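look at this record:
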Amino acid sequence: MKAAERGEPQAHTLVGRIYAEGYGAPRNPGLAAQWYARGAELGDPEAMFALGLMLAEGNGVAKDRGAAAALFEAAAVRRHPLANYNLALMFLSGDGKPENPHRALAHMLFAAEAGVAAAQYDLGTLYATGTGTDPNAFEAARWIGKAAAAGHPEAQLDYGVILFRGHGVAPDPKRGAAMFRAAAERGLPVAQNRLARCYAYGAGLAADPAEAAKWHLIAKAGGVEDEALDKALAKLSRADRAKAERSAQEWRERMQAGIE
């Protein structure tokens, strides 16, 4: 508190975070916003970003997307990666900023180059769809691949598809299956379905009907239907089906334990 009283910007931000997260003091979003505002007035980009998030979400303050955008922009000018990312999203959606795909791309690129995995994935998607730029399969694959390597589940799923199809990269089914597995283990039902198909058809890994059944059951519980895999599951022996059901249940229990 003494540093904040002396007018040190980062100290104001730290006090704001204490109240925002409830570290050593009762959680108080309203007080957090006040401290972040002081830090922002003194030029701390982290305070600008934090207050911008609170304004964007209406957390501790009245929701004001325009004011949030102004703070993100001020922090982005000061090279704050996540502020650049959130500003890019606003320029994409037209919510808080006029829709401008070209400016969105520029801010997304800055955040991606700074290592923000979500920005790397979204940047790859912009290149894939030609939003704010010409379509570029190579750049799409490069950035989605970076996000996948950083552990972004949706990027892992999409990069798996890219590797199987050879869009912007040389086809590599083995790596594609590995990407599907990574995303499947993170709980993405579509990736679980893709992994089940890899096991069912021996695509990128050795065929294994029991493993295919396991991942199909997991994906199906997550809402992804697959008639072809239903038919394959019906052909399993009673023992193999029981094994697959047991494996699927054990996986779900491990996931639940991890969440708890």
Summary: The domain at 1-114 is CATH 1.25.40.10 (Serine Threonine Protein Phosphatase 5, Tetratricopeptide repeat).
